Amino acid sequence: MNEKKHWEWLENKLTEWLSKGILDKDNAKNILLEKPTFKQEYSLLTKILISISALLFGLGVISFFAFNWSYMPKWLKISTLFTSFISLHVAGLIFDNKLNKKEMAEFFHLLGTFFFGANIMLIAQIYHIEEHAPNGVFLWSIGAIIMAYVLNSSPQFLIYGILTIIWQSMERHYDLPQFWTLLLTASIMLPFTFKKKHPFSVTITVITLFIVFSMQMSYFAIGITGNLFFLSVFCLGIGLLIRQFSSINLALPVERIGYILYFTTLFSFTFKEGVKEGLIVFSRNFYSTDVFLPYILSTFTLIIWVIYFFPLSTFPEKFKNMERKHIFIALIAFIFAVIIWSISNYNIKLVEKNDLKFVAMIGFNIIAFIHGLILLFQGTLTGKLLKSFTGCFLVVSIIFARFADYASDLLMRSFAFLIAGAFILFIAIKTSKIKSKI
Amino acid sequence: MNKKILIIIVAVILQCIALFYMCFQREYIVKTGDKIFIRTVPIDPRDLFRGYYVRLNYEISTLPENYAQINEAEEMRKSERKVYLTYETDSQNILSPLKLTLSKPKNERFIKGFTTYSWNEKNINLRYGIEKFFMQQGKSKILERGQQFEGIRIPLEMEARVGKENGILVLTGYRYAGVGIGLKNLKKEFPDSFVVNIKIANTYKEKISICDPNDHSTFLIQLDENNYYDKNKELKLVYTNTNAVEYKNEDLKVLEPESVYEFNFNLSLANYKFYRGKEEIKISDLKEWSERIKISYISPSLDKVSLLEHSDKLWQGTLTTESFSRE
Q1: From the candidates A63, A96, A129, which should be mutated to test the interface with B, based on the most B CB atoms within 10 A?
Q2: How far, in Å, CA of A212 to CA of A137, rounded?
Q3: CB distance from A151 to chain B under 8 Å?
Q4: Distance, in angstroms, between A97 CA and closest chain B CA?
Q5: What is the pLDDT, as a whole number, of residue A124?
Q6: For A84, which residue in chain B has the nearest alpha carbon?
Q7: For residue A226, what are the CA distances in angstroms to A231, A237, A254, B41, B102?
Q8: What is the per-residue burial (b if ≥16 Cβ within 10 Å, else e) of A282-292?
Q9: Average per-residue pLDDT for chain A
Q10: What is the pLDDT of residue A281?
Q11: B243 in reach of chain A (CB within 8 A)
């Protein structure tokens, strides 16, 4: 319960206790004097409704001008657009400072940002500009992020994230990888997230950076899942650091995305084709970006983990206090992946290509299976349903996948389904019992 | 005024400056740039946010690699390379390309463009940032349909202004050429030779003259190099008539307003030699669908016909048919 809600609950209770005679009036008054003044804030639902409303208004205006009224002179179109854009921000300022209506101020500033985008597109329409379409969206996103910083506004920040993803997907048509865009997006988003310290902005930042990174990686035909795997362990390390230096609330979005990515890519490596596409590519040029990039990611990941455990003398205590010790399995998987990647890409003649594929597949099967079992037992013993579910899902998925690969007998399959079903039922009952005890 | 309001005002002003720059840059080119016309072939669709437009493909959107220097051609076949196309204009301000370079030309008129990927090693594909012409919803249909006269397509010419310093193009309007060329393959009527029927339409409200000597030497056969991708079958064409041309009075054909001049052109008798790879072939041997040619009417310069009757009405410019094959 947050502090504001806590006070609301306490006020209700004070009335109740007064009527029952548990508390006298003076005591109740003294308690209420302790109540801090809360800043007027509006709910997430209001924020979302305001954003949707501004978006619809914006689209309406864009479509209105997109009709391209041929009898409307060029100067009239341009001056109407400029005037509307400025008026909206002025209205936002008036609602914020004179009328003290924060929701309406947010709405008008958001609409102003949509008008900025509309202006860019319609000026391009007026002058028939088709030079490099993504630049228009990029310029629009810069407008949105400036307003996000100036107004300290999460909806404007969300608009920036969405526009950045649109910008990157448009750039994708031009067949030129631009990793600087990832650095640019990170350097724009991270300071805001750091300043805001809110799970919503952390989630937007992580999702945007992840999509921008994936789009850049999609320029290369190979190693995409490998890079995403390295990225996932990087996210888990960042999550640990945020837990240490800030709060669990801020770490959760990063960790959740990290875990989703980690388990998905790890499961793909349990297949021969998966590990081949993701990690094993023989005889590549050392300096080509697609081979070199995972090393940059791996180095950053290691640095993050070392920072977490620095100084090393604190390691035993930190390890003891860690909420999720199973995260070390991810670190082992990461080191194993780096070794496989190095052997395959730099032509180290230790093993043949097919043998390496087989070794890697076996290794990842063992790691994934152990990780699944640990999650399953920890989840069952502590009554944590999500942990039990993840572990159970991973273990059963691996069993079924290998079973489908190596067994074709229907009777055998029938037994496997029955055993797996009974196993899941047992876990569910056990977790439920422990949870009800807790 | 408190600090926060001031910062918001500065942020809004910054955005206004960005928008103003977009307008100012283009408006400056519209006011001070050179006026040219570029020939196009329009096709349709629409943009979700920016309304309806006509997608334009220009004659200069694909240029043979010999427009570029040998050491630059390979780089130009890659995507998104900035290039400069030097040009000249004829008496009707229609652009003719001269050469493509990667560096900005000095003391020459140029337009700026970007390369797009080309699968054909013989060509360089380009875009100039003027491939969309936005129009009011419904009105774009007029351009999409194009202008026809007695079945002959009249070329659409986009009016543009070129920034003198940067070569940026800004579309400012369009016009139809007034004169169009049409072609019909007469394979059924002349199965043993390669004969085509050529029509030239005058849609102007006044008389014009065109030059068509007996050997039709003002009608040049050209290869459509877009279609050749097999080096062993690559076509080559050599013009064999090296005699100096002297035009006579009867070579200038007068076209009444809104009328058509037509004639049959036996390509088998034209002064050309064709080679498929190293082998010399007859023009009637062009059997494959990909072996396509086109015919361009190129008007002679005024000084060559100035003494002839009706030379004052001579239409000057170039007209090119769509590409066609023997089959």
Answers
A1: A129
A2: 15
A3: yes
A4: 9
A5: 86
A6: B16
A7: 9, 17, 19, 46, 38
A8: eebeeeeebbe
A9: 81
A10: 65
A11: no
CA distances from A290 to A293, A303, B79, B144 (A): 6, 21, 20, 44
- Going by the DSSP 8-state scheme, the letter that residue B251 receives in this structure is G
pLDDT of A61 strictly over 80: no
Averaged pLDDT for residues A75-104: 84
Q: How confident is the model at residue A157 (pLDDT cuts 50, 70, 90)?
A: very high
Letter for the amino acid at A224?
Answer: I
Nearest CA in chain B to A122: B50
Q: Is B7 on the interface with A (CB under 8 A)?
A: yes
Please give the average per-residue pLDDT across A314-319, as a whole number. 75
Amino acid at site A393: F
Residues of chain B with Cβ-Cβ distance to A175 below 8 Å are: 79-80, 117
Query: Residue A437's pLDDT is what?
Result: 67
Q: Which of B129, B120, B28 is nearest to B85 (CA)?
A: B129
Give the pLDDT confidence of A400-420 residue by residue, as tens digits. 888 777 666 777 777 777 877
Which of B19, B31, B61 is the best substitution to test chain A (most A C-beta atoms within 10 A)? B19
Nearest chain B alpha carbon to A81: B19
Chosen for mutation from B50, B79, B158 (greatest number of chain A CBs closer than 10 Å) is B50
Q: What is the pLDDT of residue A42?
A: 59
Whether pLDDT at A163 is above 90: yes
Burial bucket for residue A166 (CB in 10 Å: 0-12, 13-18, 19+): middle
3-state secondary structure of B247: coil
CB-based contact B133:A128 (threshold 8 Å): yes
Tell me the shortest Cα–Cα distance from B134 to chain A, in angstroms: 6
- When pLDDT is cut at 50, 70 and 90, the band that residue B45 belongs to is very low
Cβ pair B55, B45 in contact under 8 A: yes
CB A54 within 8 A of CB A114: yes
> Which comes out higher in pLDDT, residue B236 or B128?
B128
How many Cβ atoms from other residues are within 10 Å of residue A369's Cβ?
Answer: 16
Q: Per-residue pLDDT averaged across A293-298, rounded?
A: 76
DSSP A223: -
Residues of chain B positioned with their CB less than 8 A from the CB of A173: none
Give yes or no for a contact between A391 and A377, defined as CB atoms under 8 angstroms apart. Answer: yes
How far is the C-alpha of A200 from the C-alpha of A155, rounded, in Å? 10
Strand partners, B276: B235, B279
* Contact state of A151 with B26 under an 8 Å Cβ cutoff: no
Angle (CA) B197-B203-B207 rounded to 5° is: 95
pLDDT greater at residue A369 or residue A70: A369
> Is the sign of the CA dihedral A120, A122, A126, A129 positive or negative?
positive
Pair A124, B50: CB distance under 8 Å: yes
pLDDT at A301 over 70: yes
Name the strand (E) or helix (H) holding B235: strand B235-239
CB contact under 8 A, B137 and A70: no
C-alpha distance from A330 to closest chain B C-alpha (Å): 41
Residue B167, Cβ density class (10 Å: 0-12 exposed, 13-18 middle, ≥19 buried):
buried
Confidence of residue B86 (pLDDT cuts 50, 70, 90): very high
pLDDT at A434 over 80: no
**pLDDT band with cut points at 50, 70 and 90 for residue A118:** confident
**Dist CA A162 CA A207 (whole Å):** 10
Residue A243 has pLDDT above 90, yes or no: no
The residue-averaged pLDDT of B119-138 equals 79
Nearest Cα to Cα of residue A212 among A258, A180, A256: A180
Q: Which of B121, B82, B84 is nearest to B99 (CA)?
A: B84
- CA-CA-CA-CA torsion sign (B8, B11, B15, B20): positive
> Which pair of tokens denotes residue A134?
């993504």
Interface residue A128 vs chain B (CB under 8 A)? yes
Interval B38-46 mean pLDDT: 62
